[in-house]
Amino acid sequence: MNEFDSRYFPLKRKFPNRVKNFSRSRELRLERVKFPGFLLEAARVALPSPVRSMAGKRLVFISDWHWHASQRNYRILDELSGILQQFPADLLLLGGDLCDDAEFLGVLPPLLTRLGTLAPRVVAVNGNWETGKRWLKPDYFTTLFAAHGIKLLTNQAEHYADTFILGLPDISSIDFRNLPPPEITPETLNILLSHSPDGVVAADKGAFLKNFHLAFCGHNHGGQIRLPFIGALYCPSFYRCKFDRGIFDRAGSDFKMIISSGIGEHYRTGRILCPPEAVIVELA
Question: What is the torsional sign of CA 76, 158, 201, 199?
């Protein structure tokens, strides 16, 4: 493992027994909707609501902005705003890696200002990029997000009347061997927000996932470069391209893990056959 990987992906071991619990859903898939002239796609799926109070609500998930205030960034942000006018979100979830690197921290406020207005509730977790900026004060991102009306969950949960959201820390920041199961019940829509699907696999021990209905993840960018009939060429995951994007079932439960291709890309890199996307979950 090189220095970069040890800093940003330092989970020390795979969890081969746990990863066997997850498989790509055969019943559900994200329907990709391309809007004429848009760079951004909407990846939509309709799910039966596990709790009656959430029926008819809409969740939107975006991840991996890697924001560097480019013209392309702002165009995608404008397109996201347009999509959410057509498909209004009751809850907007942000999956981490908001910033591309430290030199772009100063240009985050305009993005956060816009994101904070796109839904009545906006909730976020950190990604490996935020977690890796260890020279910043521990509450730097919490304070920054809060100033724009966004709740950042760092190993903590947010309770609402109809929703429970746990922000799972990035795999680089906690020990996943002995995570205590959260105190939740099936009476609310229970969401696990994790930057990386590897973190969800690592957390799948004992009863930890028992009462969760959904997990939202990013990190792998859908591979960012994909080929016809082959798919993703590389993903920064212990499990290679198994969790590139899409919907995954956990054996023996109704738990669904939804993985986004991401909405941005690393500075000075691009996408091939893998457009940026916003995931839209409509609860029926």
Answer: positive
Global pTM reads 0.94
Q: How far is Cα 157 from Cα 138, in angstroms, rounded to an integer? A: 18
Give ∠ CA 277-150-203 in degrees, rounded to 5: 70
Write the DSSP string, 223-247. GSBEETTTEES--SSTTTTTTSSEE
Q: How many CB atoms lie within 10 A of CB 72?
A: 14
pLDDT in tens, 20-33: 999 999 999 999 99
Which candidate, 90, 80, 146, 155, places its Cα nearest to that of 113? 146
Torsion angle of the four alpha carbons 195, 109, 264, 24, in this order, in degrees rounded to the nearest 10: 30
User: Beta-strand (E) ranges in 139-208?
Assistant: 151-152, 156-159, 163-168, 189-194
Which H/E stretch holds residue 250?
A: strand 246-250
Which residues is 189 bridged to in the sheet?
163
